[in-house]
Specification:
By secondary structure, this protein is α+β, with helices and mostly antiparallel strands. It folds into 2 domains: about 190 residues, 3-Layer(aba) Sandwich (Rossmann fold), CATH 3.40.50.170; about 110 residues, Roll (Methionyl-tRNA Fmet Formyltransferase, Chain A, domain 2). The chain contains 9 helices and 16 strands. β1, α1 and β2 form a beta-alpha-beta unit. α1 runs parallel beside α6 and α5 runs antiparallel to α8. The radius of gyration is 23 Å and the shape is elongated.
Length: about 325
């Protein structure tokens, strides 16, 4: 049974990370009825490995919203049939939706995706867009189908990527953009569904889930590519390099912030040119990058200058 009242819809909202929070708030502020929030189960997190709720689950609980936390999304098919939503809204939920779930809403199952589809289908579109040096991205609202991120497009919104913007900063902006665009789309959903358009299959690129090895910094690259990887993997999972110093065990350092430099030297890539109060200057193939924020294994994030006070680094050390 439809929950539409004065154009407002009954919605089941699926999400896990903080990316979905602006959309959940915006839909409520616009008068839609949140029938339930669906999120991942509590997982061990932090150093104490204490089971903790997802960002979206915590927000739903604090508002007293009905909350479902299935291990597998197909397990709540009966719950969704009972709730009888007009729409499913998905924002970075983290599980693939089977056909049995996609078919439960009266009108459509819609996804808020943080790229300009068909580019960057997959779990990490924001990170890979920055790592690959893109200068533009955006939000796509699409109707969910069986194939991952392949459904027809209802709406898009573009935005430039700032040359120093991190994935975390861009995610915040795109989350707000996605909320606005979803509210606009739902304001006349039947019309949006009529005008939906298929994705251009010839233009597909992918953004697979990030693996730890994706964070490795190879300094045998141009400085911009190194900086793009640092930005694209900040704040998580983080870029890293292994610092090798004579007579000392190699140390893995997360590189949290870095800036471009053009020292005009012929030093081999990866060589530490200078380490001082301004950071750690490391040669690349076309110049250098200055590492300004780091985190040692098991330690806290700190400025490179603070790290150097307890861990001297001389010219000739290398990042490998």
């Amino acid at each position: 049974m439809s929950r539409v009242v004065n154009g407002k819809l009954g919605i089941v909202f699926l999400g896990t990370s903080s990316f979905g929070l602006p959309s959940l708030r915006a839909l409520q502020d616009d008068g839609h009825v949140i029938l339930s929030v669906v999120t991942q189960p509590d997982r061990p997190r932090g150093r104490g490995r204490k089971p903790s709720p997802t960002s979206l689950g915590e927000a739903a609980s604090s508002q007293g919203l009905p909350l479902l936390r299935p291990e597998k999304i197909r397990d709540i098919k009966a719950d969704l049939e009972r709730l009888s939503p007009d729409v499913l809204v998905v924002a970075a939920y983290g599980q693939f939706l089977p056909t049995s779930i996609i078919r439960t809403p009266r009108l459509a199952a819609l996804n808020i995706h943080a790229s300009l589809l068909p580019r960057y289908r997959g779990a990490a579109p924001i990170q890979w867009a920055i790592v690959n040096g893109e200068t533009e991205t955006g939000i796509t609202i699409f109707r969910i189908v069986k194939k991952m991120d392949a459904g027809p497009i209802l709406a898009t919104r573009r935005t430039a990527i700032d040359e120093m913007e991190t994935a975390g900063e861009l995610e915040e902006r795109l989350a707000s953009m996605g909320a606005e665009l979803m509210v606009e789309t739902l304001s006349d959903l039947p019309a949006a569904l009529v005008k939906e358009r298929p994705q251009d299959e010839s233009a597909i690129t992918y953004a697979p889930r990030l693996q730890r090895e994706d964070g490795h910094l190879s300094f045998d690259r141009p400085a911009k590519q190194i900086l793009d990887r640092v930005r694209g993997l900040s704040p998580r999972p983080g870029a890293y390099g292994d610092l090798v110093r004579p007579g000392i065990e190699p140390e893995r350092l997360r590189v949290l912030e870095a800036n471009p430099e053009v020292p005009g030297t012929d030093d081999p890539p990866g060589l530490v040119i200078l380490a001082d109060g301004n950071g750690i200057l490391v040669a690349a193939t076309d110049g250098a990058v200055r590492i300004t924020m780091v985190q040692a294994a098991g330690g806290r994030s700190m400025s490179a200058a603070a790290y150097l006070r307890g861990h001297p680094v001389a010219r000739g050390a290398r990042f490998v």
